[in-house]
């Protein structure tokens, strides 16, 4: 059977199944039919719960079958040599992070198995109480000529106290210079929220790298995350972004199950990689 026809049938079948489940849930909710219930309904089990349970069971079954199919096909595949020639920057957004979490994040970034990976940490805040994050950066990634930092009174959209037009432009140039010339860089800037932090990283990097990877400062990254996600992007030009499978603390590292979650929307604790425009 042609691949396109198979894909179309899967899309139609999945859509019909979703509509059937939604219709069943709605009907069960309206009728309120219950199989088992105790006095005053301390314990009850009805049609609504049965449909939800069946839906979860079917989802788990198909997830298992898909996982087995991928394993039989030899996934994960060997990483081709081509992606290693691409340049990638890991951008870490930090805001009043727990010191232990930040250390673990930076140490995991240091262990990522990707040649010449650039690490850019932007701290949302430049006050004295934020200085400990710069100290942790120096502790983990500093101490070499590869590391650079800059404490900026402003950000790209709001001037800090005492800034003139000339000093603001000088600060912007300094941020770009530190980010582009350092393997590990830390920029502390005027508070502006997470979007402002990411804007600084993207603006400073510009077109100096092929791909940008992002994560929060409480994420522990798997050493293979960058090369695994990059492999997906390189193999399929229609994929513009790849998200990782994030596990809660104590359940393991944020292993980037890229082939399963390709092009998934970003969330605040995910690690993602996308093509630089």
TrEMBL record:
InterPro entries: Nucleotide-diphossugar_trans. The chain crosses the membrane at residues 12-36, 42-65. Pathway: Glycan biosynthesis; hyaluronan biosynthesis. It is found in: Membrane. GO terms for molecular function: hyaluronan synthase activity. One of its GO terms (cellular component) is plasma membrane. Its main location: membrane. Gene3D superfamilies: Spore Coat Polysaccharide Biosynthesis Protein SpsA, Chain A (3.90.550.10). Its EC number is 2.4.1.212. The keyword Transmembrane helix applies. One of its GO terms (biological process) is extracellular matrix assembly. This is hyaluronan synthase. The gene is HAS3.
């Amino acid at each position: 059977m042609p691949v396109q026809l198979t894909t179309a049938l899967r899309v139609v079948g999945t859509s019909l199944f979703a509509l059937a489940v939604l219709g069943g849930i709605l009907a069960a909710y309206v009728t309120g039919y219950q199989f088992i219930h105790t006095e005053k309904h301390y314990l009850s089990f009805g049609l609504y719960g049965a449909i939800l349970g069946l839906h979860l069971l079917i989802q788990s079954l198909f997830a298992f079958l898909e996982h087995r199919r991928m394993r039989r096909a030899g996934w994960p595949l060997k990483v081709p040599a081509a992606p290693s020639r691409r340049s990638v920057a890991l951008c870490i957004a930090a805001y009043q992070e727990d010191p232990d979490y930040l250390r673990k994040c930076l140490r995991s970034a240091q262990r990522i198995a990707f040649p010449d990976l650039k690490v850019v940490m932007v701290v949302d805040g430049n006050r004295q109480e934020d200085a400990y994050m710069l100290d942790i950066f120096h502790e983990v990634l500093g101490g070499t000529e590869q590391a650079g930092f800059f404490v900026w009174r402003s950000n790209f959209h709001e001037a800090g106290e005492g800034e003139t037009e000339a000093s603001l432009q000088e600060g912007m140039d300094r941020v770009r210079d530190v980010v582009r010339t350092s393997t590990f860089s830390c920029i502390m800037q005027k508070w502006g929220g997470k979007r402002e932090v990411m804007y600084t990283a993207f603006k400073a990097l510009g077109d100096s790298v092929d791909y940008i990877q992002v994560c929060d400062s409480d994420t522990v990254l798997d050493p293979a995350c960058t090369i695994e996600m990059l492999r997906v992007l390189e193999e399929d030009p229609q994929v513009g972004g790849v998200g990782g499978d994030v596990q809660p603390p104590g359940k393991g590292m944020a292993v980037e199950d890229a082939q399963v979650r390709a092009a998934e929307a970003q969330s605040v604790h995910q690690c993602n990689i996308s093509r630089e425009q």
